[in-house]
């Protein structure tokens, strides 16, 4: 366990086991150097405890990079709750988790993630004020979509010579909370939309409301387009898929799009501009962090606007150094986290 922590440069790992509620929780605090660690809480079944711990550590590190480049004065953290085979009361489990968070004295602030909801955050918030994305705080997804939209314009400017999206062919993979809102904004900007989702109903909605062209999920990645926007699951950019992409740039909301760091170099070698996912999709984190601090929409909107400038700067560095923007973003984040 300590070698895993050392490799990720993890600050602290906290475990809780509460037989009464069934809570088995891991909180990984990657860094508090720039501020309290902020990051989502997953509630999933894991094959074993080691996998849950590994997941928490990896994700907490990612949150530190995202927060550092978003400039929100937070470090990265992540919580993983191991979903039990049988549970008496979901509310009791999340309340127990709230008490666990409270013992950390504000060093970790939680948020919604895979398998959790605002209702779960409400249970946590009964016992600690270090919980965001409660039902009264609002949904971060539209803000994530806004940031991605602005980032797509910056990407079009850098790769295609102009930020006007009118007439550009943009392929959106995944029409969930973020993907659909993004598709709406792209449609309003005059883009030609190509869309896929595993849920045929979401696709139908985009066809009817946005005039989108439906594409089979397995074919979307190889469909000729200007910009590919992965907004479904992570890991879509791997050795096989990258070899067959037919786009000028990839810029989407999905977390962890690169199956491994080297894939960024393969995209670069193919002349495909890659928008580092955690820079582009930071809108949700910015919303959650600023709402938690009591900020209103004007401050949130102003902060969101910085995403496209950050991306433009990263593209300029990447071009000058002939490196992938993903490598440049990682180096910048590491500088902020470890060298300042
Ligand atoms: P969501 O669950 O609402 O939507 C995901 C959609 O993608 C679903 O409709 C699903 O059917 C579809 N999908 C999954 N795999 C697909 C595939 N192979 N082909 C086509 N469609 C596929 O999730 P969301 O909140 O919209 O988030 C989307 C992505 O953005 C996730 O990777 C998430 O981690 C990331 N993200 C979300 C936020 C946020 O604020 N919600 C913030 C940062 C990052």
From TrEMBL:
Domain of life: Bacteria
SMART domains for this protein: ELFV_dehydrog
GO MF annotation list: L-leucine dehydrogenase activity
Entry keyword ATP-binding: no
Keywords linked to the UniProt accession: NAD, Oxidoreductase
Membrane-spanning parts: none
GO process terms (BP): amino acid metabolic process
Keyword Acetylation: no
EC number(s) from the headed UniProt entry: 1.4.1.9
Any Pfam family matching the protein: ELFV_dehydrog
Top-level EC class: oxidoreductase
Family statement: Belongs to the Glu/Leu/Phe/Val dehydrogenases family.
Summary of the function given for this chain in its UniProt record: Catalyzes the reversible oxidative deamination of glutamate to alpha-ketoglutarate and ammonia.
Name assigned to this protein: Leucine dehydrogenase
Gene (name only): ldh
